[in-house]
Known about the structure:
Elements: E1 6-9, H1 33-45, E2 50-53, H2 62-74, E3 78-84, H3 92-105, E4 110-114, H4 123-137, E5 143-148, H5 154-166, E6 170-174, E7 177-182, H6 184-188, E8 201-207, E9 235-238, E10 243-245, E11 258-261, H7 266-274, H8 277-285, H9 287-296, H10 308-317
Helix pairs in contact: 1-2, 2-3, 3-4, 4-5, 8-9
Amino acid sequence: MFHPEEVIFAPTGRCNLRCAHCRVRSDGPELAIEDAVSFLESCSAAGIERVGFSGGEPFLRLDFIVAVTAAAVDQGLYFDRLMTNGDWWTTGASLRAALGAVAEAGFDGVIGLSHDAYHGQAPERVAAFMAAAYEAFGRRDAVELLSVRSPDDGAFFRGLETVATALGGRLEYELSEPARIVDEAYLARSEADPDDGSALVAQVIRSPRSRSAEEGAWDAERWFVDDFCEGPGNVLYVHPDGAVAVCCGFANENPQLIVGSVGDSVEAIVAEAAARPLVRACYEAGLATTRRRLEAAGVRFPGKTGDACFFCDYLCKRGLVGSRG
């Protein structure tokens, strides 16, 4: 059952980078601070406790981040991730000023730094961003690295090694994948030691690229396993134009997953979500059940995919599940 626990604001679709794997539209209107704060208050009254930021590049709307963060603090809400590519700044002074403003407004969640072969940021600038974030937030565990796998990640891995060295740490691997950047203070800690944020640890969270059907996404050996959207979670994702979706993944611009706008009450949005067959499939019956039903009705898919989010987007794009029902 869909029951939103977090609201994620994407104030702009603009971005300073042009990544090959990104599906976010860069044009169009931008979210007004007043509308976001009003909707945030409605979310708080409805029992939603967490707030996050996405985009586009949110730091291109620093005024928005600061104002909505301050409003969330006033509402007593918790913070999740503030997503960024960490490469939008021009000078070290401007970087420190921007991060300092967000910290002063009260943000105490995690900075989700999107860094992979597609983003292509210079390792030196990634390290500079992370160091500035540690200084602004007073913790050396304030940044997570969210990384999309590419066919050739060799240069990216070497860049991560450079980042780790610049921060005074080292890159650890698990099963041939980078897992975290840590320093000696982190490695020397015991479970009984207080977590005061003085030790360096930056988790590296790896995920597959969600591809289009034309790029060979149907070549999996077996079908995806349903997670009932536990990965993205029960969220309200607010697009720059004020549309509200029930998904924070790349499929969230499809009309089947948009259930209202910031001008609607959370109660009305949740009721609309309950009327959407695809939303019920994602959060209740499971997309695998929908797949089997469609196959029984004669639908034939190009192959198998292990990516439930891709499959959801495919259903939307092909109109295989209606907007209402």
